[in-house]
Amino acid sequence: MTAIDDQRYRPVPNRGDHRCFACGPQNPVGLHMRFCADETTVISRVTVGAHLCGWDNLVHGGVVSTLLDEIMSWTAIRFLKRFILTKSMRVDFVRPVYTGSELTIKGRIGAVRRNREATILGRLYNDRKQLCARSEGIYVLLTTEVARRKSIMSEKALAGFMQILDAQK
Questions:
Q1: Beta partners for 134?
Q2: Whether pLDDT at 47 is above 50
Q3: d(C-alpha 105, C-alpha 53), whole Å
Q4: I need a surface site. Which of 106, 120, 142, 169 has the fewest CB within 10 A?
Q5: What is the CA radius of gyration of the chain?
């Protein structure tokens, strides 16, 4: 990930010991996304390698969708300080996304309903700051107890994630 040079953005903590395809530092073929946030937006910068192409030098649409899902997820985690699960997601592909170029992905909260669900908005820009894809996702907001009961993650992972949530208060 390229550094975020805007002083408004501060790093969002993440566990260093997991294998999530999008944000896991321990996944050897993952995207290794890292996140920064200001008061309203979570941002990540990523360059997608050619091994994740669709047509020749275009980033596969599933990878574009993954980038947007991950930024929206971390937006919910950062600002709502809850465990989340993606309920639904819509992606509009506006322009081609090319491998090997620096992409900027941004997320922000759209709306929260009864503290149970949130609408999150995602945007993906190319290295010329052109909008390439936009998304809207509905995320289920879970308490720690529900995440534990539904076995969303192991107890060790749950404890590590709780540290991330506590660090953002």
A1: 92, 123
A2: yes
A3: 18
A4: 169
A5: 15
At residue 1, the pLDDT reads 46
pLDDT in tens, 70-123: 999 999 999 999 989 999 999 999 999 999 999 999 999 999 999 899 999 999
Residue 109 amino acid letter: I
Task: Please state the domain extents for the chain.
Answer: 10-167
The answer to whether the CB of 78 falls within 8 A of the CB of 168 is yes
Q: Which residue has the tokens 């999008």?
A: 22
Separation of CA 88 from chain center: 15
Q: What is the Cα–Cα distance from 134 to 90, expressed in whole angstroms? A: 8
> Which CATH homologous superfamily contains domain 10-167?
Hotdog Thioesterase (3.10.129.10)
Residue in the block written with tokens 């047509």: 55
Q: At 101, which amino acid appears? A: S
Tokens for 123, please give them: 């945007």
Phi first, then psi: give them for residue 44, nearest 5 degrees. -145, 150
In contact, 78 and 107? CB cutoff 8 Å: no
Q: What's the token pair of residue 25?
A: 């530092």
